[in-house]
Amino acid sequence: MKKNAPWILVAVVAVWFLGNLRAPKETDFALTEFGRLPLVFNGRFQPMDSLARNSLLQIREKQTVNLEPWKEWYEKPAVLPAVNWLATVMMDPEKADGWPVFRIDHPELIALLKLPAKSKENQQDGKHFSWNNIQPAIETMEKESKRIGKIDQAHRSPFEQAVMKLHTRLILYMRLKNTLQPQDAKDWARELAEYETLVGPGVAAARAQQAGKPFDQAVFDRFLGLVQRFDAMARFEPPLVVPPHHDDRARDEWMRMGDVLIEAARGETLQPAAKVYATMTSAFRQGRAADFNRAVQDYRASLQAKFTPELTKASREHFFNRMQPFYNSMVIYVLAFLLACFSWFNLSDGLRRSAAGLIMLGFVIHTTGLIFRMWLEGRPPVTNLYSSAIFIGWGAVVLGMVLERFFKDGIGSVVASAVGFISLIIAHHLSQTGDTMEMMRAVLDTNFWLATHVVVVTLGYASTFVAGFLALVYILRGVFTRTLSEETGRSLARMVYGIICFATLFSFVGTVLGGIWADQSWGRFWGWDPKENGALIIVLWNVLILHSRMGGMIRDRGLMNMAIVGNIVTSWSWFGVNMLGIGLHSYGFMDAAFWWLITFVASQLVIMGLGLLPNRYWASFSGKTVAAKTPAGSGEKAAPLAGKKPTPAQA
Question: What are the counts of helices (DSSP H) followed by strands (DSSP E) for the chain?
Answer without folding.
Answer: 25, 6
